[in-house]
């Protein structure tokens, strides 16, 4: 029982990061029908930002806002430089463009920084734990879960209560009709990229705190988790993306702790097997999106 | 107010609209009638900026607005109630209206919301309901109310009575009548030619992408052969027309 609760907390901590990543993927997919395979690049750029700062003995207190700001700016720059030029193109064109962006960012760091792993010090409290009864809870997981919940509440308020949020939701449902109402496509798309970058930035802070290192290909793993979680939840659904993120995190942790030691390394493979089974029975993902089917 | 000259719009190799001329004066209600596939929707969508014409020009209030984006056209006072309504089904009735008023100041938006709730009691009752749960008639009223939220000077409507039960067709035409009484300028596409000619000052008849006739209801009705063409020519419009006939 204790172990199960322990696993659930670990899973929620891991799932929180995935949920933030998936939400960013879903926001962009909603307005542009772009499955953004460059979503991890914000974390790659964030990673090198931390590395650069730590080399100069700056503190994590400075690095945290820096990662988030750099992530938002990277997201906006990617939109401006790449995606704005293929706007209105087919879904496939957009998808290929996102792959292109990934390889360009990857190559820039490979050529101009280094191909080798760059490490930096993790904050000291990341490894700390505290006890509640017989449970040993990581301070890190607690912080991640609390910050994620607060971020999700804030995002929900933004989407429900502001004109920007309303415009974003309307555009996600029917972009052309939203434009007929006077919603400016530029502002709604840039807003979506800024929001997506902000969410990736927050996720990136935690991802990098735990990793303590970066490489030119550092964005692939978080991108895969975000895209997978968004697919599990049902592409186009923001709620689904969050649920998908938590589901993926929990599945990973529970599988890892339940699988016999000899095959524990194959956890990822088993997770993919589970996802394949999910899509056989629910091809639309966990949450059905009415308008995505209509489009 | 609105002048369309020599407008041609193509879908690939096919010209859906050829060399169309049209004029809507301030305070006028102008109908656009004709059978299915005549190019009526193409004309409205091109004027609204959803489609780019391959030739010709659109001017609004004397300014050339050919090829201008829909969001800019809306800001200059031209609103379109699109074909199939295209209300946002996941958003509530209130949110649909709010987004309709995205271009006006928050204070004006608030006043307009109150006005719409009063003017469209069926919407007022379902204020917080997701628009996807509205009936066809309610959805059409929402689509029109949503367009009015931007305080447009010219409202274009694409088949407002399409797919509605006869009794609801009456509601829509009563609404058009009341907007007309307020002095609203409107350009309305309708397959229900008989009803349209009753409320319109003038109408244009489109056939195979070309404007084939124009005039008042009287003048158009006088041309028997032509009237036959546009009243019974449309496949999809037939049931609507039939329904309207039954009403009388």
Name the descriptors.
heterodimer; A: 295 residues; mainly alpha; ABC transporter involved in vitamin B12 uptake, BtuC; 12 helices; 4 strands; globular; B: 248 residues; alpha/beta; six-stranded mixed sheet; four-stranded antiparallel sheet; 11 helices; disordered C terminus
User: How would you sum up the major sheet of chain B?
Assistant: 6 strands, mixed
Measured distance between first and last alpha carbons of chain B: 34 Å
The total strand number of chain B stands at 10
H/E series of chain A: HHHHEEEHHHHEHHHH
Strand order of the largest sheet of chain B: 6-7-8-3-9-10
Write the topology of this structure.
The complex is a heterodimer of chains A (295) and B (248).
Chain A: H1 2-32, H2 41-55, H3 60-81, H4 91-112, E1 118-119, E2 129-132, E3 135-138, H5 139-161, H6 163-173, H7 175-180, H8 185-211, E4 213-214, H9 220-233, H10 238-258, H11 267-281, H12 290-294
Antiparallel strand pairs in A: 1-4, 2-3
Helix pairs in contact in A: 1-5, 1-6, 1-8, 1-9, 1-10, 2-3, 2-8, 3-8, 5-6, 6-8, 9-10, 10-11
Chain B: E1 2-11, E2 14-24, E3 29-33, H1 40-47, E4 55-60, E5 63-64, H2 70-75, E6 78-81, H3 93-100, H4 106-119, H5 121-125, H6 136-148, E7 154-158, H7 166-181, E8 185-190, H8 193-199, E9 202-207, E10 210-215, H9 217-222, H10 224-232, H11 237-247
Parallel strand pairs in B: 3-8, 3-9, 6-7, 7-8
Antiparallel strand pairs in B: 1-2, 1-4, 4-5, 9-10
Helix pairs in contact in B: 3-6, 6-7, 7-11
Outline:
The complex is a heterodimer of chains A (295) and B (248). With 295 residues, chain A is mostly helical.
How does this model look, in words?
The complex is a heterodimer of chains A (295) and B (248). With 295 residues, chain A is mostly helical. Chain A has one domain: ABC transporter involved in vitamin B12 uptake, BtuC. Chain A has twelve helices and four strands, in the order ααααβββααααβαααα. In chain B, α3 packs parallel to α6, α6 (136-148) packs parallel to α7 (166-181) and α7 crosses α11 (237-247). With 248 residues, chain B is α/β, with parallel strands linked by helices.
């Amino acid at each position: 029982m204790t172990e199960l609760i322990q696993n659930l907390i670990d899973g929620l901590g891991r799932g929180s990061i995935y949920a933030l990543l998936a939400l960013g993927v879903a926001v962009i997919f909603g307005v542009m029908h772009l499955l953004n395979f460059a979503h991890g690049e914000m974390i790659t750029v964030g990673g090198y930002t931390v590395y650069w700062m730590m080399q100069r003995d700056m503190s994590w207190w400075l690095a945290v806002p820096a990662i988030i700001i750099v992530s938002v700016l990277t997201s906006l720059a990617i939109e401006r430089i790449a995606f704005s030029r293929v706007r209105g193109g087919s879904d496939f064109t957009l998808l290929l463009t996102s792959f292109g962006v990934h390889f360009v960012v990857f190559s820039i760091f490979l050529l101009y920084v280094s191909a080798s792993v760059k490490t930096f010090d993790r904050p000291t409290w990341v490894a700390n734990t505290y006890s509640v009864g017989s449970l040993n809870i990581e301070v890190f997981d607690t912080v991640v879960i609390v910050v994620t919940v607060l971020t999700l509440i804030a995002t929900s308020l933004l989407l429900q209560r502001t004109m920007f949020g309303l415009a974003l939701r309307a555009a996600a449902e029917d972009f052309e009709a939203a434009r007929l109402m006077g919603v400016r496509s530029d502002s709604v798309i840039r807003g979506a990229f800024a929001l997506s970058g902000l969410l990736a930035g927050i996720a990136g802070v935690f991802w990098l705190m735990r990793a303590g290192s970066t490489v030119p290909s550092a964005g692939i793993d978080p991108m895969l988790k975000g895209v997978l979680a968004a697919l599990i939840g049902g592409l186009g659904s923001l709620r689904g993306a969050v649920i998908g993120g938590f589901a993926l995190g929990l599945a990973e942790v529970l599988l890892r702790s339940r699988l016999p030691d000899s095959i524990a390394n194959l956890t990822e493979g088993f997770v993919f097997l589970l996802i394949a089974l999910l899509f056989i029975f629910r091809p639309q993902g966990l949450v059905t999106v009415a308008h995505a089917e209509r489009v | 107010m609105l002048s369309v000259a020599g407008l041609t719009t193509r879908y690939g190799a096919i010209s859906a609209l050829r060399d169309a001329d049209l004029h809507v004066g301030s305070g006028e209600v102008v109908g656009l009638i004709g059978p299915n596939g005549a190019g009526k929707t193409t004309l409205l969508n091109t004027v609204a900026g959803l489609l780019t014409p391959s030739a010709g020009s659109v001017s609004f209030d004397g300014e050339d607005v050919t090829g201008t984006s829909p969001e800019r056209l809306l800001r200059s006072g031209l609103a379109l109630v699109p074909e199939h309504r295209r209300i946002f089904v996941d958003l509530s009735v209130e949110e649909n209206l709010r987004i309709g008023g995205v271009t006006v100041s928050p204070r004006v938006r608030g006043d307009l919301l109150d006005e719409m709730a009063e003017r469209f009691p069926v919407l007022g009752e379902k204020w917080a309901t997701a628009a996807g749960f509205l009936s066809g008639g309610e959805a059409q009223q929402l689509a029109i109310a949503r367009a009015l939220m931007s305080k447009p000077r010219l409202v274009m409507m694409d088949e407002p009575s399409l797919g509605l039960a006869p009794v609801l067709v009456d509601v829509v035409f009563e609404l058009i009548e009341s907007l007309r009484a307020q002095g609203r300028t409107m350009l309305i596409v309708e397959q229900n030619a008989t009803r349209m000619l009753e409320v319109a000052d003038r109408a244009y008849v489109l056939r195979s992408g070309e404007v084939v006739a124009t005039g008042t209801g009287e003048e158009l009705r006088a041309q028997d052969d032509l009237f036959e063409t546009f009243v019974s020519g449309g496949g999809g419009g037939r049931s609507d027309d039939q329904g309207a006939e039954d009403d009388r």
